[in-house]
Design goal:
The two termini are about 30 Å apart. The model has no long low-confidence stretch (mean pLDDT about 90). The protein has two domains: about 120 residues, Rossmann fold, CATH 3.40.50; about 190 residues, Rossmann fold, CATH 3.40.50.720. Helix 1 links the parallel strand 1 and strand 2. Helix 5 packs across helix 7. The chain is globular and about 70 Å long. The protein is built from 13 helices and twelve strands. The strands form two sheets. It has a seven-stranded parallel β-sheet with strand order 8-7-6-9-10-11-12. Strands 2-1-3-4-5 form a five-stranded parallel β-sheet. The protein is α/β, with parallel strands linked by helices. InterPro entries: D-isomer_2-hydroxyacid_DH, D-isomer_2_OHA_DH_cat_dom, D-isomer_DH_NAD-bd, NAD(P)-bd_dom_sf. One of its GO terms (molecular function) is glyoxylate reductase (NADPH) activity. Belongs to the D-isomer specific 2-hydroxyacid dehydrogenase family. It holds the Pfam family 2-Hacid_dh. This is 2-Hacid_dh_C domain-containing protein.
C-alpha cells in the first residue's frame, strides 16, 4: 500500500529506545509519526493515527487534550511491564486498549539485580575509586584501603515479589550461588514453584519478618499505593547493619532520603539501585557523588540488552496488530 494509505503509528522520538529492526518492521505496516512531528503542530487533528507506542519515560498521551487530537486511536502499547504511569481509566473511557510487555523482561532484569548484588558485595565503587589513586597503583593489595567484600555463595537473599523477575532472581541466587532464600508477597506461592526454585525458598508473611533475616534484599514488586515507600526509615532499621538493598523494580518503592540517611549512619551497609526517586537522580545527589558510600546506581537499564529490547518491541507490534484486527491482545490491561 501507499504510505498515505497506511495507518499511522505514533512513536517516541527518543534516541536508542526503538531499534532499527523494529522501525524497519513497523515501517512496512504503518506510517511512523514521531512525537516531534506530532508536537510540532499542536492544534492539528491526527485521524490517521490508530496506534501508539508509549513507555515510562515517554508517556506523552497521558492527558485528554492530547487524546482529543487522536480521534481514531485504538491502542496504546506500553514498552515495559510497569504501568503505574498510565491513567488506565482515561483510556478505558475512550475505548482505547492499553497493553504492556510481561514475560520478556524477566531474565535481563534479574541479570541486572545480580550485577548489583555482586558489585555491592565486592565494593566495586570503592575499588574503582581506589585504583585511580596513587595507593591503588602500588603492586601490593595487602594494605589496600578498599574494605573486604563478602561472598555471595551461602548468603541469605530476600526477594520482595515473586513474579517473573523475582523467580529469575531466586533461580540465579539459589541454584547458582547456593544462597538461602526468603520471599515476601501478599499471597504465598504454590508449593510446586517453591520446589522448582531449589526447595530452599521460605515464605515470610510480612516484610518485617523478611528484612532482619537477609544479607541482600531485592525489590521486584510493582509500585502501587500500598507499596510506595515500603522501604522507609522504619523498615530500613529492621535490616541488618551489614545488609544491602537492591532495587530493580520502581524507584518509588524506596524513600530516597531515608535510604541516604541509613547508608550514611551505618543502619545498612550498601545499596544497588537500577531505579530511583527522582529518576534520574541529579548529578550532585550524594548517592551519586559521595564516593565513600557503597552504592551502585544504574539508569533504569534492567532491560537494556539488544535481545530483550527487540523482544519487547516485537511484542508491542504483535499486540498493536491484534488490536487493529479487532482481537483482544494477550497482554491487554483491561477488556473493553
Amino acid at each position: 500500500p501507499q504510505m498515505a494509505e497506511l495507518p499511522g503509528l505514533l512513536i517516541p522520538k527518543r534516541s536508542g529506545l526503538l531499534l532499527p529492526e523494529f522501525l524497519a518492521e513497523a515501517g512496512r505496516h504503518f506510517r511512523l509519526v514521531t512525537t516531534d512531528e506530532f508536537e510540532s503542530e499542536p492544534q492539528r487533528q491526527w485521524p490517521e493515527i490508530s496506534a501508539a507506542v508509549i513507555c515510562v519515560v515517554a508517556n506523552y498521551i497521558d492527558c485528554p487534550e492530547v487524546l482529543d487530537r487522536l480521534p481514531n486511536l485504538k491502542i496504546a502499547a506500553n514498552h515495559g511491564v510497569g504501568v503505574e504511569h498510565i491513567n488506565q481509566e482515561m483510556f478505558r473511557s475512550r475505548r482505547i486498549l492499553v497493553t504492556h510487555t510481561p514475560g520478556v523482561i524477566a531474565e535481563s532484569t534479574a541479570d541486572a539485580a545480580l550485577l548489583h548484588i555482586l558489585n555491592t558485595a565486592r565494593s566495586q565503587r570503592q575499588v574503582f575509586e581506589h585504583i585511580r589513586t596513587p595507593a591503588g597503583q602500588q603492586p601490593s593489595w595487602g594494605g589496600s584501603a578498599v574494605p573486604l567484600g563478602n561472598d555471595l555463595a551461602g548468603a541469605t537473599v530476600g526477594i520482595v515479589g515473586l513474579g517473573a523477575i523475582g523467580r529469575c532472581v531466586a533461580r540465579r541466587c539459589g541454584l547458582g550461588f547456593g544462597c538461602r532464600l526468603y520471599y515476601y508477597q501478599r499471597r504465598r506461592a504454590e508449593p510446586q514453584l517453591e520446589l522448582e526454585l531449589g526447595g530452599q525458598l521460605q515464605y515470610c508473611a510480612s516484610l518485617a519478618d523478611l528484612l532482619p533475616r537477609c544479607d541482600f534484599v531485592v525489590l521486584a514488586c510493582p509500585l502501587g499505593p500500598d507499596t510506595r515507600h515500603m522501604i522507609n526509615a522504619d523498615t530500613l532499621r529492621l535490616m541488618r547493619s551489614t545488609a544491602t538493598l537492591i532495587n530493580v523494580a520502581r524507584g518509588g518503592l524506596v524513600d530516597t532520603e531515608a535510604l541516604l540517611t541509613a547508608l550514611r549512619s551505618g543502619v545498612i551497609a550498601a545499596a544497588g539501585l537500577d531505579v530511583t526517586e527522582p529518576e534520574p537522580l541529579p548529578a550532585e545527589h550524594p548517592l551519586l557523588s559521595d564516593s565513600r558510600l557503597n552504592v551502585w546506581v544504574t539508569p533504569h537499564f534492567g532491560t537494556h540488552t539488544s535481545q530483550t529490547r527487540l523482544s519487547m518491541q516485537r511484542l508491542c507490534l504483535d499486540q498493536i496488530r491484534d488490536a487493529l484486527r479487532g482481537q483482544v491482545p494477550q497482554a491487554a490491561l483491561f477488556e473493553l
